[in-house]
Every structure is written in C-alpha cells, then in structure tokens.
Specification:
Layout: H1 4-16, H2 20-28, H3 43-50, H4 52-75, H5 80-95, H6 108-118, H7 120-137, H8 140-149, H9 151-157, H10 162-178, H11 180-194
C-alpha cells in the first residue's frame, strides 16, 4: 500500500498541472496562451494579452492550487513540514507540468496562495517586506523575488522548525531559478540605461 504522504505529493503535483491560464484562454478566448506574448501560461502574460479580468481570474485560480495542496496536507493530519512539501510539489507541477511537456508558469501565484494557507503571519511579513522593498526599488519582479528569498529567514526567525526552513529554502531556490531570465533581462536593461 502506498503511504498517504506519497499520494499527497503525487496528487499535489498533478493538481499543479491544471494551468488556469490555459483553461481561461481556451474556454473564453479560444486561443492558446502558450503561443501568445511571452508564451508563459501565467497570470502576468494572460493579463498582458487578455486584460485585468483574465489576470485576476488566473491569479486566483493558481493561488487556490497552492492553498488547496497545503490545506489538504493539514486536513490529512500531517505536520507543517509536509504542508510545505505539498506546496513544493504543486509548484513543481505548475512550473513543470507533465501534461504540457513540462512547460508551465513561473509559480508566483501558486506560492502566494500556498504561503497564505500555510501561515498567515509569515504571509503578512512577506507582504510587508515586498511593499517596503518596492517603495525603494520600484520593481515588482525584484521586490517580489527578494521577499520570497527572505521567506526561509522569516520561518527561521519565528522558530517554526528546521524542516520548514529547509523546504522553504528549496522553494526560494526553485523560484529564483525559474526567474533567472527575468533577472538577467532586468540587469541588462539597467546596465544599458546607466551608460
């Protein structure tokens, strides 16, 4: 018999394969989002192509995936570390969906929804850091990624446990890796403007 924790991880990964952007673009606009704009099936690209309502719907849909994975782990009685592992699994499913040739979104919306469900206090501190950094940096991408990188530090400062810190660190590394091209583009743009 397969242990429940493995079923949770597999189920969370498969849940991540449900790409809200793809569903919305196909159902309401009769277009393939993977072939439009940046080709990324995420809220930001959907918003650029189809507008604010599509952005909000996609953001909520992807955020709910993260929240559902975490809350399912909690409902099954698992410890908080497993909740974060479930979030990691659903994010991997969203970023590298097997049903879409491993070409998915970038995971920010799913991360935000999962973090809120996991620990509202950590989420509030995360949002506070983002807002403060944005006021100085004036870049959603850099401020957001910086706040995400600090989530493991927040968890450690609240003494939530070594396991949660380790998995949260893996989440941060995953998101940074997925956004490496965005950061490189931002760096090159600022460099060219400074000349």
């Amino acid at each position: 018999m397969i242990p429940t924790v493995f079923l949770l991880i597999i189920g969370s990964y498969l849940l991540g394969n449900i790409l809200t952007a793809t569903m919305i673009s196909n159902m309401f606009y009769k277009k393939e989002i993977q072939g439009l704009g940046s080709g990324n099936p995420g809220a930001r690209n959907v918003g650029r192509i189809f507008g604010k309502k599509a952005f909000i719907a996609t953001f909520i849909g992807d955020a709910l995936k993260g929240a559902l994975a975490v809350l399912t782990a909690r409902w099954l009685g698992f410890e908080p570390t497993i909740e974060v592992i479930a979030l990691l699994a659903v994010m991997l499913g969203h970023i590298y969906p097997v049903f879409f040739r491993f070409r998915g979104g970038q995971g920010i919306s799913t991360f935000i929804g999962g973090l809120l469900a996991f620990n509202p206090l950590v989420f509030i501190i995360f949002v506070g850091i983002f807002v403060i950094m944005y006021l100085f940096i004036r870049s959603f991408t850099v401020a957001g990624l910086s706040a995400i990188v600090l989530v493991p530090i927040i968890i450690a400062s609240l003494s939530l446990g070594t396991g949660q810190f380790i998995v949260a660190s893996l989440l941060s590394v995953l998101i940074l890796f997925v956004h490496k091209d965005d950061l490189k583009e931002k760096y090159m743009k600022e460099r060219s403007e400074s000349k």
